[in-house]
Amino acid sequence: WPSSQQLRQLADGSDHIAITVNGGAYGLGTNGIHHLDYFLFLTGRQNAEVRYAHLFDLPILSGRGERFRDFGGHYLVENERGSMLGCCLPASSAAPVMTIVGRNFTAIIDERTLDWTLTVRKPESTLPVYRCDADYVPTATGEMKYLPMDATTGLWADGEIALPNFTEASAAHDLLHAVLEKGGARGPYHYT
Q1: pLDDT tens-digit series, residues 19-29
Q2: Residues contacting 87, CB < 8 A, separation 6+
Q3: Which of 3, 8, 21, 63 could in theory staple to 86 by disulfide, Cβ–Cβ 3.0 to 4.6 A?
Q4: How far apart are the C-alpha atoms of 57 and 51, rounded to whole Å?
Q5: How far is residue 78's CA from residue 80's CA, in Å, rounded to a whole number?
Q6: What is the pTM of this model?
Q7: How far apart are CA 58 and CA 156, in angstroms?
Q8: 114-129 pLDDT, tens per residue?
Q9: Per-residue confidence (pLDDT) for residue 143, from 0 to 100
Q10: C-alpha–C-alpha distance, residues 110 and 143, integer Å
């Protein structure tokens, strides 16, 4: 995905990135894991520490049946390249909005409208950094496109995209489980 590669290049040029995710009952296990995975991807790391986690008592039900439950809560994870603060409100139906901020760039991903916007400071700007948002221009906008699984598989089989290896994929699961454990939940987990 070109937008992810572009954000990764901008993140690589930053000493530190900050990510926030706020939304309703998207479920930390169901969708929150993708946010955590994106954080690890953008920071170029496979590890992070859970600095804070609080889970709400109200479970998030699943359309896949009564045996599945998910979690809402807030958390802060951090590694040497960035931090991520997330909130999933189980009593709200609001779609998540993600912000990504780094050295002279801001990205907003709105899962309600499936739109994303990237603004970057003009390279020739001489204004001091405390002039927040001065000399920023939108450089990319668009609709997030989710490919059907068969199309994704075809691109992977043709060598046009690389999927995460096991170590990369398990890092996001490990981080999610660390968030859930720090928040007081005990496995086995039954999110989908």
Answers
A1: 999 999 999 99
A2: 21, 22, 23, 73, 74
A3: 21
A4: 20
A5: 7
A6: 0.91
A7: 39
A8: 899 999 999 999 999 8
A9: 82
A10: 9
